[in-house]
Specification:
Layout: E1 3-7, H1 18-21, E2 29-31, H2 41-55, E3 60-65, H3 68-78, E4 83-89, H4 97-102, H5 107-113, E5 124-126, H6 134-147
Parallel strand pairs: 1-2, 1-3, 3-4, 4-5
Helix pairs in contact: 2-3
InterPro entries: AB_hydrolase_fold
Organism: Arcanobacterium phocisimile
Protein name: Shikimate kinase
């Protein structure tokens, strides 16, 4: 069984992945932890690991968007045995000025800012034209997993 953990970026919500998840095979185990109130990188990692274990004990495929790619990279470094692969969508390694201003008081954003990006980690990077719509994003995730 394939286990996919969706990671939302600061300023988004875990439910932003629901429409994508609806288009994936029903036999897959899916998780989307609610990271908004996590105030440290350790808390983020623990929540991802706990939510992943709720659906499966198998290694997971992390699917991350925006600044959450840094979170996926950090989880991979810390929980290497739990990660099968990382899929990055619209990877951002530095917050924009808009994010710095609008998300400055969000605990999750502050925690993500403490995580160092690591571009040496082997990731599948999906191009913007592959992820314009939920069904299209699901198909791109499916292909990326099948090719691994």
């Amino acid at each position: 069984m394939t286990t996919v953990v969706f990671l939302h970026a600061p300023g988004e919500s875990f439910d932003s992945w629901l429409e994508v998840a609806d288009h994936l095979p029903p036999a897959w185990a899916l998780a989307a932890p609610h990271l908004t109130q996590c105030a440290s990188r350790e808390a983020i990692g623990e929540l991802i690991d706990r939510d992943a274990h709720k659906v499966s004990d198998e290694p997971v495929v992390l699917v991350a968007r925006g600044l959450a790619v840094r979170v996926a990279q950090d989880f991979y470094r810390t929980f290497t045995h739990r990660v099968e692969s990382v899929i990055a969508i619209d990877a951002e390694y530095r917050p924009s000025l808009r994010q710095l201003f609008s998300l400055r008081s969000e605990p999750y954003f502050q925690a993500v800012r403490t995580i160092t990006a690591d571009i040496s980690i082997d990731m599948t990077v999906l191009s913007p034209h592959e992820v314009q719509y939920p069904a299209q994003t699901a198909a791109a995730v499916y292909r990326a997993i099948a090719e691994k």
